[in-house]
Amino acid sequence: MNKNIAVIKGDGIGPEIVTEAMKVLDKVAKKFGHTFNYEQLLMGGCSIDANGVPLTDETIERAKVADAVLMGSIGGDTNTSPWYKLPPDLRPEAGLLKLRKSLGLFANLRPSVLYPELRAACPLREDISAKGFDMVIVRELTGGLYFGKRLTETVNGVTTAVDTLSYNENEIRRAAVKAFEIAMKRRKKVTSVDKANVLDSSRLWRKVINEVAEKYPEVTCEHMLVDNCAMQLVKDPAQFDVMLTENMFGDILSDEASMITGSIGMLASASLNETKFGLYEPSGGSAPDIAGKNVANPIATVLSAAMLLKYSFDMDKEADAVEKAVSEVIAEGYRTGDIMSEGCKRVSCSEMGDLIANKISCPLC
Ligand code: NAD
After folding, report:
1. Based on the domain organization, do 294 and 325 belong to the same domain?
2. How many C-beta atoms lie closer than 10 Å to residue 150's C-beta?
């Protein structure tokens, strides 16, 4: 297959970690007989330096015509970088929010996986972490409380602030379809999280999820209240395969799920629109404290590239090959500084990329 990938390396460690993910993609292309064409685009601080704005219209148009976008991370040290003396709409993060909106990315996917060899980093009790876990949180990204009407007003000397949580059935349905499609590629279980005992928006959420579930008879669908879900995540995370939830619940639960893996440098993410198009990026930031030192962990970006193969290109075998290569390198004891532990072999960012790329093999070749 011939595919065009827009690449936004970004700021800080972005260029280092994306270079390693491209190294792995190139090896996949070679082993599986594909061609990946890359177009490098600027966004964030580097775009401010080059163009005076964090995101140009041309970058948006170029990203739109690509088959998928692979991104590093953007932004600098928020205390010292001159980018943070600019008005908020000209700062690096404004570029990312505008890009997500322009590309219609309404579903955010965050896998949370505990590798057996990294169990020591997991803050959960040993009998819980021993079972391991491998889940994806699908968070609705463009509706709900963060996008509803808001106001603050003072009447008769009393100040009141109002935020509105609103969803229509179409917004819920398209997020649900994504979650069930993803479950079909995994262990075929969806846990939909809501607060249907209190909120009208959650009651509609539950109704629409049940309608969508009927179209996926192979997938087991269960509903869980958000307060119970927050507890279940630390009590028995192994029970989850695909967790589907609205914007604010997803914001909170996906951070909780990240924390229980214990290592930010391992966490991939994807944001998808209604087509196969998506933007793939590590969950962490641009880590200005370690930028340019070749010590960053590229695995989150490599795993984001694996998600790109799976969800945008339907290259499931290729994605599996990348995930398997990462697991093998971890099992052999290679670690970047952030996940280093006694008895392991410390490697640089580029060495980690080489190790993973060298492990890529095609089961049919
Ligand atoms: P951060 O995630 O960049 O760093 C937090 C800590 O994690 C640091 O100690 C860093 O060294 C470490 N870390 C992060 N990624 C790592 C990796 N791959 N390998 C090894 N260590 C890693 O968060 P921050 O310091 O709060 O933010 C720094 C900048 O990143 C800010 O400008 C922020 O706005 C931006 N940011 C961007 C994104 C994005 O591009 N999507 C997301 C979050 C933060």
Report:
1. yes
2. 11
